[in-house]
Amino acid sequence: MEAFDYGKARVAAERLIAKFGQKAVLRRITSAGPDYDPVQTSEDFPCSLVDLDQSQAHVADTLIQRGDRMVYLSTEGLSVTPTLADRVLIGGAEHAIVDIQPLSPGGTIVFWQLQVRR
After folding, report:
1. Number of other CB atoms surrounding residue 22 within 10 Å
2. Fewer CB in 10 Å around end: N or C, the chain?
3. Which CATH number is correct for 6-117, 3.40.1180.10, 3.40.50.620, 2.40.10.270, 3.40.50.740?
4. Predicted TM-score of the model (pTM)
């Protein structure tokens, strides 16, 4: 039996997110200098994503709060791995990343599923 080609799945996900999603920015904020007077700088990474409402069925009795968004973040052109310290700018509005789950069957990251909060 031939192994499944997850590289093709990744390309398909990139194509679908580009077609049905939107351009956004992944913002990485870093601190430098002494603890008592840190200097924060931000670096923006352009990305493509699909922004979705969270299902109301998931809101009750979970860590998901009303107003949280589910984001499918494309790997295409993204030069960094998203972290919980990063922010996502969707339509100019900054959202904190609450949870990150890579869809990575067979060790190939097809896309990132993020839970974000404004």
Report:
1. 13
2. N
3. 2.40.10.270
4. 0.87
